Amino acid sequence: MGDGGNDPVSGQTAAVELTAITKRFGSVVAVDNVDLEIADGEFFALLGPSGCGKTTTLRMVAGLEFPTEGSLKIFGNEAGTLPPNKRPVNTVFQDYALFPHMTVEANVAFGLKMQRVAKGEIADRVQEAISLVRLEGLEQRRSQQLSGGQRQRVALARALVNRPKVLLLDEPLGALDLKLRQEMQSELKALQREVGITFVFVTHDQEEALTMADRIGVMNEGELLQVGTPSEIYEHPVNRFVANFIGQTNLLDASVVSNDTVCLANGVHIPGKSDLPVGTRVAVCLRPERAGMYPPEEVPADQQSVIGRLESVTYLGNALVYTVVLDWARLEVRRENQPGGYRPHVGQEVAVSWTLDAISVVRA
Amino acid sequence: MSSTVQPRGTTKIALTAHSWLVYLFFFAPIFVLIVFSFSDDRNVGRWGGFTLEWYQDFVEHSQLQNAVWVSIRVALLSTVISVVLGTLGALALERFKFKGRKVFDALLYLPIIIPDVTMAVMMLLFFAEFFEILDSVFGWDVQKGLGSITISHIAFNISFVSVVVRARLAGMSEVLEEAALDLYATRWKTFRYVTFPQIVPGVAGGALLALTLSLDDVVITQFAAGPGATTLPVFVFGLIRRGVTPLINATSVLMLAASVILVALSLAFQQFSGRGGRPSLRAAREAVSAPSTTNTQIKEGITQ
Which residue has the higher pLDDT, B2 or B250? Predict the structure, then answer.
């Protein structure tokens, strides 16, 4: 790239820039022609199901795999085939990979020792990193004597003590239980704000990605399908896969009639904006919490609707999920548990409705 | 552990009796060996009063002592070399993909499978041909001896060392090495600070195994030894042919004592070097227990 990875918006050099990166293992294409720019200071999530190539992408940035094709730049410097010990990045591994024969302190000091940093400075920086992740008093413990959350913090300190330009995290919260995971989510976010380093993390948990990341890249089968902020990804998914993978959704089969009309599978034309060619098979994405539900004859005039039979009601406490069956589709509607709302009974005919801005038209 | 079912009644008696039988089977021959090494009778199996004559004999028997030194030198040298080569081989097979890896893998295990006699004959032929070539090409007159014995011991020890080290390497996550590389370690430093400390118990176990196999070997050594040098087991076999005396008992007791002291020292060393930690101590015990039993078995064989 001639522009050296300049961000067109801010004019800054991208922290990580992948251009047409492909990675093959034998005949298997793990990462397929991926272009991606991650800005300096960003908290970026690579999201996808297992085997989608997200970890391979991260490992290429770390230098643990070399790309088969394409260019990989870290702060403007070509790094595609640099060994991991020559890159200004550090990794928090999935199962932390703490050195079992070393104490917490020795684990954290390892990177500095390898870089031949002066002894006194190592001691200071190790202490600083240990207090950053609030592990004071555990310096002499070994990893077997730590809980999962503590190991995670050691792994973070061990990486951050080197003051990397980019911190890579491979499923950083995957090994923790739910409660601890939620705690660590906000802690990681706070930590990232505090140190101001670019964080790139890999996860298969869409909720984790939505809550933590500034931007998300969704991958599947080696391809990077969409990159955007959590709200962009959630509200305007590019295709059926992304819509399905991020949150719960209803997908109604349809085809494009014009740039503001689609034809549902039942033959009804409804407004729906898309810039896809006429005749393209698409899906209308309607999030359960954005759908309305009314008696069939009481649908407000400004809303589109389909009519079906209520099959079941799931009571969640704070909300209710209604499953409505049409003869060509099945829809879920989520309603907050408010007093005095419309409460149809199972077997009754109901209308599921939406306003134009509640739906998005995605590629099938 | 306390929750496991405790045997009761006749089961308990039978199990206890069984344990004692096993211990008796293990240690009675050693006990007999030690007692009869002090017997003042040329006949091995007859008690003729207490004497230290046979130990005196051992001290004065220069050929026997020579054999002991050859054994020790061969054992140490072949152990050091085979530990280095065996560990390198294990690392190559476990951590790298290369052409001909499967062939190398199979070949490496061959010495474990081939019968000792076959290996011995192979060695004999090899040295005969090799020395002839040296003689005709360079005019060097080389004889079988310390060198040929050491080489033949290295040849089978490499396999055993690499098997033991590989087992340890296979249990060690490669991610640790990746983490070290990610933390700015070079390949060498990764090995030095991460891989090696992790596989040390395997390397130590392999070394002890190699040491004992070398000290114990009779068949291969007999074919590789020459007029220049012979090892203790081979020499003892020679003695038996000329008539067994309690000198052999005394020699065996001294060997036994030496190996017990070595084992005790290595355990004590592990205990005091606190940084080695508990896991390595456990591994050392595992490693040590195997060779010491083979040792005593061989010695039982000699006393019969």
Answer: B250
